[in-house]
Fold this protein.
Amino acid sequence: MGFRELREFMVSTQLVPRGIKDERVLNAMRKVPRHLFVDESIQNKAYDDMALPISEGQTISQPYMVAIMTELLELKGNEKVLEIGTGSGYQAAILAELSKEVYTIERVDVLAQNAEERFLSLGYTNIHVKVGDGTLGWPEEAPFDRIMITAATPKIPDVLMEQLSEEGIIIAPVGDRFSQQLLKCTKSSGKYSDEYHTPCIFVPLIGKYGWQQEDI
């Protein structure tokens, strides 16, 4: 199969059977060329049901995890989204297909640079990349309608909650270093309501309000 057929196969065998229903999310997963976000040597595995390694000890998440986190954000198309942890850039590209503007922060300079080059080559003009400590958010651009944290955190940093707009949603893998659960937090009338979803395992969120580098 070619890459286009592999994407369709991924959607029909990995996402739909597991309950991903949002057609906009499914179409974005069909469209974005995941194989271009991994090293050429493992492009043949890009649409397999697994996370894959990228450089600097980081990973690109399993397709299902990308899909469910995206679906939980309930994107309609006009949102301003903050992503913490750019990594390969694949998740940001999916978000860019489904929202108005994506602001993504990556602490590792080479990853941010590589992701930005991919965005430009694929024609994404609505993704903005910043190198820095993602646990601090992007206060100059706040508030955000949606926030996604793509690394494991002991708790959602308060500073990120403060950058969430009214009726906003934040998604994060919350737990200890080696086992987390997706937490969907919705802000309404200044109060937050929590919903826990699927168990997961992510690389750690490193920063002032996450894990400390020396603890990893």
Notes: The radius of gyration is 16 Å. The beta strands are 52-53, 59-60, 80-84, 101-106, 127-131, 144-149, 164-175, 180-188, 191-200. The mean pLDDT is 96.
